[in-house]
Amino acid sequence: xxxxxxxxQAKIYTQNADYNCSPWTADASEFALPAGVMFADLSSMMGxxxxxxxxxxxxxxxxxxxxxxxxxxxxxxxxxxAMHCQ
Length: 86
Prior knowledge:
The protein is an all-alpha fold. The protein has a domain at about 55-85. About 35% of the residues lie in helices and about 0% in strands. The chain contains four helices and no strands.
């Protein structure tokens, strides 16, 4: 069990702090990408949802079977419509 903070510890976080912000500039020497790891842009991947060959209308789609796992109702209906399920 984690120790409980006392009133004096809580007071520390409510006091004003003196700090000075400055713009951050990228410094390649501070961070090197690990070798052998492929990074993906999730925002572009999310834009592809419902646009692949598995999501074409009339095609038996794995996406539709995933929608069927959503409880009956509005959520399932939205999923099936987005995936062009019959």
